[in-house]
């Protein structure tokens, strides 16, 4: 079985997950989108905004704030995005609604998203300080409980907190943000940068400029001081900007640019055949630098790295040694054995598919290889047409790119007691480094071993550069995507040396530029 998979050429499509990157970018943007209020007496306000991704118009947003009574107001937003990925059309419609108290804490909310026909719904209702969240993905529902401490607000409402304090340049405010899309509460800081005049579609205003920091995200928002009307919002490390406009201009034609051409990184050296790449040394420059996973196959060379430079040694994944059996029962590994909203490892259909794939095999590594091959062959339509399907949706549609392959594989593995998680990073194909997702499994004393069912690889080649671990829960998506997006549009990746399994080597001479 191993030799068959190594000889099989990978599909040219269904590899990079630009759709995943853009979907999470959308979620991040929505968290910081403008909301409005001049005082504790909330007026009705309405605004239209152009959304720019990588400098090109990708969609628009329509927002309203409506008072309900003296204690509550309603914030609603509706967005429409259109783009292409690998030539495939990509359309996203999304709407949000929050009922908010005058203390700015959310009372209830609902989020609806339709991405190329894949529908997700998330609702929540506050009960005794706990938000009861119900998340429905592809018809499968999961309930979560999230405690909201005093002072917890929706991120977009941070300006309410600021405006009530008569802010001055240099003022700093602390808060807690409820990230409904990611099912978590995080600490945040808001700093007032300046006051300045800003032009509006119909006039001008004195505006406040504020900077918000949470996790490793930094946003910059501009809004009118007296009315609270949003003027401009920007998430620099996600390459997203919105600007106030008219209704007519907001709904005007989108650019529909191909996001792959915007986010892939041209390789400074041809690394083909990638599947036989044994070792790779890369250099990454940036300020700030992205995080990089360190493990048995990926090492940061600290003596060679500097403040704004990382040198990383990558190796092809070693094959596990010894006989290991499953299911594995370990409390420390429970997050990587549990079902998630998108990883329905407890579903009967997933369990049945996994049992069929392993065909009675009890040894862990041979079973993993069978799951890799099964996933690679089961997803017969390798394409970019899907959104971000859950494992059950993949089971039904047999379609998708690297995200669908990885989600499906992890669900299969967990369903039979093999700990599995996701990695998000980049890998090389056809002269480019593109954003990619692949899984890894726990194999005992050797720890975690990376596999790639999208490419039919039982163990990954040396071009796989991991930037973030992900359990599969939406809680860890936000850090992962913010870290990966630092690479977008980058020419800061250089290749210093490479070695293939056939003995071929390439080492960059000092002072020499790559062709």
How is the secondary structure organized here?
Layout: H1 2-7, H2 18-31, E1 45-53, E2 56-67, E3 72-85, E4 88-101, E5 106-115, E6 118-127, E7 130-137, E8 140-147, E9 152-153, H3 158-163, E10 172-179, E11 184-200, E12 203-214, E13 217-224, E14 230-235, E15 240-245, H4 247-250, H5 259-263, E16 265-266, E17 277-285, E18 298-300, E19 309-315, H6 348-358, H7 364-378, E20 381-382, H8 391-397, E21 399-400, H9 402-415, E22 420-429, E23 432-442, E24 448-450, E25 465-470, H10 477-484, E26 493-500, E27 505-507
Parallel strand pairs: 9-10, 20-21
Antiparallel strand pairs: 1-2, 1-15, 2-3, 3-4, 4-5, 5-6, 6-7, 7-8, 10-11, 11-12, 12-13, 13-14, 14-15, 16-23, 17-19, 17-26, 18-19, 22-23, 22-25, 23-24, 26-27
Helix pairs in contact: 2-10, 6-9, 7-9, 8-9
